[in-house]
Amino acid sequence: MKHLLQIICCVVFCSLSFSAKAQDVEPRAVPNGFVTIEAKNLPGSDTTIVSGKYQLDSKGTVQMPYLSGTISLSGKTGRQIQNALTEAYKKEKIYTSPVFSVVVDSIEHQGVGVRYVHVTGAVGSKRNLPYRPELTLIEALIECGDITDFGSRYILVTRNGVTKQYDYFSTRDRGVKLFPGDVIFVKERGFTEGREKTLLP
């Protein structure tokens, strides 16, 4: 009987140790790292707009579509990020019952030293573009398949937590220089929003 109890205790101890180790090795988001987010239970085409692969900035934060500010993800596991996203979208009353599935890239695949510009929203192909000097807004959009027929002419660019709006049809705005970590978001075009036939100054 005593021997049996020793075996049971050993099995329980090993199980707890394995569980603890599994939690320790669960990938956590890191500054400049990547997370892949799949959104569900969102209205219209928002599922496609919000879902995608995002790169955290040097502070470990990321700008998500429609949120008023950046959200800190550094140090969080996939499940913790899911909860953080759900709470953030509910808090700003953007969605009532969003569902997120998050995969954190392991450190080995984070692409350390590689800098990106993240393009998302109503574009042909949402991508993380490797940054290069002199990369402009229009170049980034074209490399991602340009804005779709449903994309707005007003492009949002977030840099270091500050978001500015640019006009797709403005020659000056098209030439805006981008920087590593910039997030370009093309929202959906409103029913009353028109399209210019020629470029504006």
Automatic annotation (TrEMBL):
Annotated signal peptide: 1-22
InterPro entries documented for this protein: Poly_export, Poly_export_N
Superkingdom, taxonomy of origin: Bacteria
GO terms of molecular function: polysaccharide transmembrane transporter activity
Limits of the Polysaccharide export protein N-terminal domain: 48-104
Positions in coiled-coil regions: none
Pfam families: Poly_export (PF02563)
Entry keyword annotation includes Signal: yes
Keywords: Signal
The keyword Signal belongs to this UniProt entry's keyword annotation: yes
Protein name: Polysaccharide biosynthesis/export protein
Species name: Akkermansia glycaniphila
